[in-house]
Amino acid sequence: MSAVNFLTNLVAHYGYLGLALLVGVESFGVPAPGETAIILAAGYAAHGQLAIVGVAVTAFLAAVIGDSIGYLIGRTGGRRIILRYGRYLRLTPERFARLEAVMSRHGPKLVVVARFVEGLRQFNGIIAGATGMPWRRFVAYNALGAAAWVGVWATAGYVAGDHIRAIVADLHRFQWYLLAAAVVLALAYAGWRLTRRLARPG
Asked: Model-level pTM greater than 0.90?
């Protein structure tokens, strides 16, 4: 069974529960296709099999709860684990210290934006907890990012209607190209910032 058929069957058979499961586990680090699940569920809503409001509320709550679980994982043991084993993933104590500094300056913005970035979305809460972002601040900005994310993909799936399966297949086909493009853009931005810093006098 293809990944597309598996997702289609999971959401079709279990409805809101299947949607909540996929979005929730993705939000605390499990590589599940929560974004695709929202699009599928919204497509079913367009055909009257689910309610679009129910899809949006379910996905939003699952995203916020999942990220909150990730935050607690990061807050209770994530920092210790990263400092001990992070070097195996090239996350050395020095790099983690720089990540903490970035989160200290731009944490709220990153929490919101991370929801739309593959890879960051799965570890958003864990990173925020491990770097010590205050709980209330994280919850507020995480909810804002989740609301925007769910709104975009639920609307896209609902509008897509009959074309939903083709769109999901295309998402799976091109997701790695999109991720590679995002990495290239991030590296280009980092290079530009480094060049500017080196060009500053003394």
From this structure: no
